[in-house]
Amino acid sequence: MAEATPTAPKNNLPILGIILAVIGLAISAYALIHHIEVKQVGQTDAFCNINATFSCDDVANSEYSELFGNPLGLWGIAYFLGLILLLIAAMVKDEYRRDTLPTYALMSGLGIVSSLALFGISYFQVGALCLSCIGVYTVCLIQGLVTFFLRDEIPSSWSLKGLYNGGFYMLIALLGAIGGYQVVEPMPQNNFTPDVPKSAEEVREILKNMKVPQIKVDRSAYSGMGEDYRKGGDDAKVTIVEFADFQCPACQQASQTLHQIYKEFGNQVLVVFKNYPLDGSCNKNIGGNLHEHACKAAVVARCAGRYGKFWPMHDRIFAEQRKIDASRLELWALEMGITKEQLNECLSSKDIIAKIQADIEQATQLNIQGTPAIFINSMPAGNRSYEAIRSQILMHLDL
């Protein structure tokens, strides 16, 4: 006797699955757009940046935000689009259902496993959580419940051929999403260089036709609230100024890039560090405490600078960025040889706070929206890659 063909689902669970997948697709699209923006500017004012624990910028800036060179948001779009295709096919025709529902169940399980794995990586490795990512994880978990309640509708006999046929829908979604992204991606991060000149001639033309706001560098410990900490040649032809936040992952990457630049060019360049902590306790431009220890990190680093140890402290804080808290910052200062009395004096110093706020005011005048912000001879660097900064330095050296 021939095996009876299962009838089409008689409940609304597939419709619920489609609605959930549409929600997941929308959240993934937001995550993709946010990822592109973060790669362009480093830090954003996205709603999901609440504090150091819940910071989608920190997650997007981490090495785990991409898979095979594509943002996780794009993979989410492909995944949920595939689920939509599978469920629509299951509702349209009985003969499709035999292949699509088992594949849907398999992909639903994969979504749950992936969500748990990514949550663990985000919490334990990155040290921050992303609200939009949590939204995607939640959708995947609810999809798992839909699959559970659909279990009686799913054919009991699975076959490799059936899964292969069902997988075809996922392949269409994957190729469509990735292919479409490669074609219409608005601003590829590797080529994002807003208002950055391409040649020495363009630099000359810009300098001739417009007034570039000069970024003041305090070179004396007795100037105002104190000097700007820097390395390289004070008389160098090229001055690189970085506004940064010690808790910003993109700033950590930028610090490594500028260290490479300094190693290559030495006294041909002057590398200057200025503070722009994304912490409302000292930065009036920031609502709340996105990076709750950033202001104290800036104070401790400048304290170390008083005793000739700014750059070792700068490097230590960035190297241990995921471990930053108030007590560790003080411990690292003591390990640098700064006494408890010296540290306490720094922590209560009005001059150090005033200097940090002077940096913030300077950043405000330059319309800096996020960190890191890098300027080469007072001109925005745009692309922060080593190759891009190096090429711009060479252009300025040729002037």
TrEMBL record:
GO molecular function: isomerase activity; oxidoreductase activity; quinone binding
Keyword Transmembrane: yes
Membrane topology according to the record: Multi-pass membrane protein
Location, primary (coarse class): membrane
This protein's UniProt keywords: Disulfide bond, Isomerase, Membrane, Oxidoreductase, Quinone, Redox-active center, Signal, Transmembrane, Transmembrane helix
One Pfam family named in its UniProt record: Thioredoxin_4
The keyword Transmembrane belongs to this UniProt entry's keyword annotation: yes
InterPro entries registered for this protein in UniProt: Thioredoxin-like_fold (IPR012336), Thioredoxin-like_sf (IPR036249), Thioredoxin_domain (IPR013766), VKOR (IPR012932), VKOR_sf (IPR038354)
Ranges for domain Thioredoxin: 206-398
Listed GO CC annotations: membrane
Transmembrane regions: 12-33, 72-92, 104-123, 129-150, 162-184
Subcellular location: Membrane
Superkingdom in the source lineage: Bacteria
Family: Belongs to the VKOR family. Belongs to the thioredoxin family. DsbA subfamily.
Name this polypeptide is given: Protein-disulfide isomerase
